[in-house]
TrEMBL record:
Residues 2-350 form the Kinesin motor domain. The keyword Cytoplasm applies. The gene is Kif12. Its main location: cytoplasm. GO terms for cellular component: microtubule; microtubule associated complex. PROSITE patterns: KINESIN_MOTOR_1, KINESIN_MOTOR_2. GO terms for biological process: microtubule-based movement; mitotic spindle organization; spindle elongation. Belongs to the TRAFAC class myosin-kinesin ATPase superfamily. Kinesin family. Signal peptide: none annotated. This is Kinesin-like protein. It comes from the Eukaryota. ATP binds at G84, Q85, T86, G87, S88, G89, K90, T91. InterPro entries: Kinesin-like_fam (IPR027640), Kinesin_motor_CS (IPR019821), Kinesin_motor_dom (IPR001752), Kinesin_motor_dom_sf (IPR036961), P-loop_NTPase (IPR027417).
Length: 354
């Protein structure tokens, strides 16, 4: 299948409205987005488009996220990643509003794709007749260093390895088992609060790292009756069981693409921005090459960044991927918006073999 590109257009902010910014992006329905501005008049088509009035629930149900959860339970490697300009609503779409904690949870209506997927996953696991083991790992890529967001103590760099059987993987990352919605949401909030963020001219809470939360789903469907001649085990379970399945559901919150001069960044912030832009450029280059017909495709340089190494299987391998492109409708953001639209248009042409 191809990646499932979904677009979300956030509302104009109060600052943009006061500044007199014009709305240049409009949803036409049926997955079409129209950009209308001076010297620019273009229409783009995608699997689904959500305008400023779309609720978090509408995005979850309309993007195909529920089907992705079910595929992960069936043993597939599934990925959803949000990308777009800084301040375009990526983290909000995935997680909901910032500032929530265990003591001050967000309103249920504002919960993002992550929490809704966790709920769906746990509901599905209870309704299916299967033994299910769930665990989570949470990483960030900050200045080309991979750091564990769940391990105790200050985040330290972990080595990225490659093997024939596993592909690229992070050595010594912590994986934590969970059985309830409260436990996984607590892990999500714990890791998110350790993630690197900074304030600059475009966003007061700008993500300065790429974050990857992976849910590992291991299931072993047990038959209702024992196979002939096998009988029941000591614990009352059937010895005649179906083969185990191992799926993953990975949520990738990419740091925002941005022009350093527009953020007013300097010093360490400037170094962070350059590192973010280099990894996003490498990601875009890989997507462009993967979009070419297989006969004309050259070597895809996944090794150009740690981000593309970790997403190699999701982009061009055996994974199933949902892309959520977040954009601002403001005339001031037109250049970045067009860049995001072209980026996702190329990604539509990529095919994978799960």
């Amino acid at each position: 299948p191809r990646p499932h590109p979904t677009f979300r257009v956030r509302p104009l902010t109060c600052t943009e409205t006061r500044r007199g910014d014009q709305q240049v992006v409009h949803s036409l329905g049926d997955g079409a987005v129209h950009v209308s501005a001076a010297r620019h008049d273009a229409t783009f088509g995608f699997s689904a488009v959500f305008d400023a009035g779309a609720s978090q629930e509408a995005v979850f149900e309309g993007s195909g996220m529920r089907q992705l959860v079910e595929l992960a339970m069936d043993g597939f490697s599934c990925t959803v990643f949000a990308f777009g300009q800084t301040g375009s609503g990526k983290t909000y779409t995935l997680m909901g509003p910032l500032g929530q904690s265990d003591t001050q949870p967000a309103s249920p209506a504002l919960l993002g794709l992550m929490q809704r997927s966790f709920t769906c996953l746990l509901e599905q696991s209870r309704s299916r007749a299967s033994d299910l083991a769930l665990s989570a790992s949470y990483l960030e890529i900050y200045n080309e260093q991979v750091r564990d967001l769940l391990s105790p103590g200050p985040p330290c760099a972990l080595p990225l390895r490659w093997s024939k059987s596993r592909g690229f993987y992070v050595e010594n990352q912590l994986s934590v088992e969970f059985e309830s919605l409260e436990a996984i949401v607590s892990l999500l909030l714990q890791g998110s609060q350790r993630r690197r963020t900074s304030a600059h001219a475009l966003n007061r809470h700008s993500s300065r790292s790429h974050a990857l939360l992976t849910i590992h789903v291991r299931s072993r469907a047990v038959s209702a009756h024992p196979a002939p001649g096998q009988g029941w085990g000591a614990q009352g379970s059937a010895r005649g069981a179906c083969p185990s399945k191992q799926g993953t559901l990975c949520f990738v919150d990419l740091a925002g693409s941005e022009r350093v001069k527009e953020t007013g960044s300097s010093g360490e912030l400037s170094v962070e921005a350059n590192s973010i832009n280099r990894s996003l450029l490498a990601l875009g280059h890989c997507i462009s090459l993967l979009a070419k017909p297989r006969g004309k495709r050259t070597h895809v340089p996944y090794r150009d960044s740690k981000l593309t190494r970790l997403l190699a299987r999701s982009l061009g391998g055996s994974g199933i991927t949902l892309m959520v492109a977040c954009i601002s409708p403001s005339s001031r953001c037109l250049s970045e918006t067009l860049s995001t639209l072209h980026y996702a248009s190329r990604a539509r042409k990529v095919t994978t073999r799960p």
